[in-house]
Every structure is written in C-alpha cells, then in structure tokens.
Amino acid sequence: DSGVTQTPKHLITATGQRVTLRCSPRSGDLSVYWYQQSLDQGLQFLIHYYNGEERAKGNILERFSAQQFPDLHSELNLSSLELGDSALYFCASSAGTGHEQFFGPGTRLTVL
Amino acid sequence: GEDVEQSLFLSVREGDSSVINCTYTDSSSTYLYWYKQEPGAGLQLLTYIFSNMDMKQDQRLTVLLNKKDKHLSLRIADTQTGDSAIYFCAESTGSGGYQKVTFGTGTKLQVIP
C-alpha cells in the first residue's frame, strides 16, 4: 500500500458526459501528479500540482482540468468524454518535486 | 528535452537473469528510478540510483548506470514468475528549484515457467 488513495476504482460512463476523479496523497506529500495510461499510448503525464499550485502541464487536453485543494487532495475533471478517453488514470504523490513518486491504485474509466 | 526510451518486451525463463535496458537523453539527470507495475495495479518504486553512482545492488536487483552513454539497466537475478510485470525507468531532471520526472514507455517482462 503506497498511502495514495484514489476514488472511484472503476467508472463507466457515456460519451459527452463529465466525471471527476479524486486523489488523496500520502500524508505530508505536497506534490500530486496525474497520469493517463492507455494500451496504445503508454503512461502519459497530464499535470502536476505542488502545494495547491499548478507546476507543470504535460499532454493534457483542454477538456480536462485539475485542481489541488488546501487539504492537498486533488481532483481531475474530464468533460465532453470521448471513447478514446477510456484508460487508467493514476495519481501519484511525492514529498517535493522530482523525488520518487508513490502511485495510487488508479481509476479505470470506461467511456461507452 | 527529456526523452526516456525502453524496449517494449522481454521474455526470460524462470531462474535466468533478466536485464531491462533504458536510454535517456538529458545528461543533467539527478536521480534515475525503476518502477514495477503488476497487472491492474499502480506503479511501485523498486529502486533508484543517484546520478553520480555507477552501480547499486539491492538483493536480487542490480542497477547499472553508464552516464557517458546515458544508459541505465536493471538486472533481476534468479527471475521468478512473480517478477512478470511492466518495468518503467524514469529520470529526474531540472534546475532552478524545479525537478521533473520523465517516465519511459515501459518494458513488459514475461517469465516463462
């Protein structure tokens, strides 16, 4: 158990819908990262928050957004969902930036 | 920019050694990591090496770093079926107070009984 929790574990929804994925980092970690893992594209970095502020953006679509709250938990919002958004979404946390990251168990999103 | 590359697939027999290779492009990396992902699970940190080291051993795992060639490898001795997983290498780079971690594409290790 990495200490990072993600909810929900599974999510099934329809095209055009909007969903919110939630992540709680390890106690004391200030950084939260979001990744998308699909079969054809591997592990893709989406976005990084550090102590409530956005620090880096990767290959994140404009339909996706994220935030980190004062209690350091984070949410990833995915809107206008498409079939191609079906993937595993991982959250990871680290103490600072560039340190080893601890991954949550992931949320499996299926868009029908 | 940072780029981390790995071969996609490796198959070994149980009891043999496995060697998973990784190349990276940014010579300013500070730490290099190996993560393991079992089916249906998140990535788990296996080991890491500081960029001024050449080798690190941790039980069955040996990490070798060749900074000149920007090549990192993970050797698993006496590979077991439980070692079947996807292995990701990653490098930590950056300056000015911000460090970024870039992951490779992952190598799927299949262990044949």
The coarse silhouette of chain A is globular
Biggest interface in this structure? A-B, 23 and 22 residues
The stretches of 5 or more residues of chain A where confidence is low (pLDDT under 50) are none
Structural class of chain A: mainly beta
Task: List the secondary-structure elements of chain A in sequence, H or E.
Answer: EEEEEEEEEEE
Number of strands of chain A: 11
- Quote the beta fraction of chain B: over 45%
Low-confidence stretches of chain B: none
Radius of gyration of chain B: 14 Å
Number of helices of chain A: 0
The fraction of residues assigned to DSSP E strands of chain A is: over 45%
Multimeric organization: heterodimer
Q: Please identify the structural class of chain B as seen in this structure.
A: mainly beta
What is the number of helical segments of chain B per DSSP (H or I, 4+ residues)?
A: 0
Q: Could you describe the largest sheet of chain A, including whether it forms a barrel?
A: 7 strands, mixed
Q: Radius of gyration of chain A from the CA trace?
A: 13 Å
How far from one another are the termini of chain A? 31 Å
